[in-house]
Amino acid sequence: MISEKMKPFVANNSAIRMMFEEGNRLRAIYGADKVFDFSLGNPSVPAPECVKQAIIDLVNEENPVVLHGYMSNAGFEDVRETIARSLNQRFGTSFGARNLIMTVGAASGLNVTLKTILNPGEEVIVFAPYFLEYGAYVKNYDGRLVEITPDTTTFQPNLKEFEGKITANTRAVIVNSPHNPTGVVYSEDTIKKLSAILEKKQEEFGTVIYLISDEPYRELAYDGVEVPYLTKYYKNTIVGYSYSKSLSLPGERIGYLVIPDELDGSAEVITAASIANRILGSVNAPSLIQKVVGRCVDARTDVEAYDRNRQALYNGLRECGFECIKPQGAFYLFVKSPVPDEKEFCEAGKKYNILMVPGSSFACPGYVRLAYCVSYETIINSLPAFRKLAEEYQK
Ligand code: PLP
Predict the structure, then answer these.
(1) CA dist list (Å): 159 to 152, 172, 176, 197, 198
(2) 255 with 119: CB under 8 angstroms?
(3) Burial classification of residue 120, based on how many CB atoms lie within 10 Å of its CB (0-12 exposed, 13-18 middle, 19 or more buried)
């Protein structure tokens, strides 16, 4: 018997995962090179060479009892110190090891944060489209998810509606930039306006509203676009970072939280978050890979490879007549479905072995997401298939 709370999760088991199964089925029938699977955000670029070297060096050089042992629930002090210094250099911040908690990826960082700050019934605001797992994470702590409808012209957050939906019960807001699924980067102007609204509402209600910045795609930004560092604009910001995409390490499950000193209740929040890391069952982030990211703090993934894919797919789809905002970051394109029911469009794509994720999986029907973290050949080979698909709607 499973719990009542788990039943809806089982019933709605992620559409993205089902797509993955469908990809395997089609690959078995047609061969891998004939299937254009844009469904999963699994990096196609391998981890930088220094990751491999760091693993080898660490295993050879470090005391195994320390390297593979338990440590403080927040993670190795030296690793947190190294990352804090790197952030300070890049963003002009003044974090120390005390402000960082190593987590089991961004997913765990979000769960740790929500467990730390959320009381049952309190509200967490998200901007559609959004990573649907946020809903599950908020439910884990009996919070209430409040959605803001999308602005489909820019996919920047709809701030007017946002302001109207903040209540005395609002505990947190989650933002994600560069953004999954649209690839949009929130501009500095947007961040300043959003911060001003939060300041005003905190004042009005006499509450603390935390801004959670979910940043697995921070390093994937194109055309020299700036990705603002949010703690500099709003003091009650908690940053959740991940190496899943930035160093192509999604299976290793490693990331961190930044909880600045300026945050209201900072010391208490930091202590509680370390304990949340422990009692949620992670205890601490995996030890070897913590040390690896500490040694690879200045390493970067091959952003040019994703950029090449971005240009080829965006230009190719536009030439076929599809409508799509040009992404400035992450590795996703959010394409307008030529028919209102985007699930029907996804089904039509399968006839040409094209796999896309319906926008309703991101609370934004009428659109589809294409993850272009695939090989360049897959992109080029998929374009004739997209052309045939487009022709179905031009008849
Ligand atoms: N947040 C967003 C917006 C994501 O797209 C993902 C993964 O795709 C995550 C969080 C979870 O990332 P992680 O692998 O670091 O847990």
Answers:
(1) 13, 15, 15, 8, 11
(2) no
(3) exposed
pLDDT band at 336 (very low <50, low <70, confident <90, very high): very high
Task: Calculate the CA 201 to chain-centre distance.
Answer: 26
Q: Which amino acid is at 58?
A: L
Atom of ligand 1 nearest to the CA of 131: 3
What residue has token string 């009650």? Answer: 236
**E strand spans, the chain:** 36-37, 100-103, 123-127, 144-148, 170-176, 210-215, 237-242, 255-258, 332-336, 354-355, 357-358, 367-371
Q: 196-200 long-range contacts, Cβ below 8 Å, gap at least 24?
A: 197/159, 197/162, 197/163, 197/166, 198/166, 198/173, 198/234, 198/236, 199/234
Pocket test for ligand 1, best of 131, 176, 184, 186 (most atoms within 8 A of CB): 131
* pLDDT-derived band at 16, boundaries 50, 70, 90: low
Interval between CA 244 and ligand 1 midpoint (Å):
8
Distance 278 CA to ligand 1 centre (A): 20
7-14 CB contacts, 8 Å cutoff, 24+ apart = 9/136, 14/132, 14/361
Residue type at 283? V
Is residue 107 within 6 Å of ligand 1 at its C-beta? yes
Look at residues 203, 273, 260 and name the one whose alpha carbon lies nearest to residue 233: 260
- pLDDT tens digits for 33-89? 899 999 989 999 999 999 999 999 999 999 999 999 999 999 999 999 999 999 999
Atom of ligand 1 nearest to the CA of 176: 3
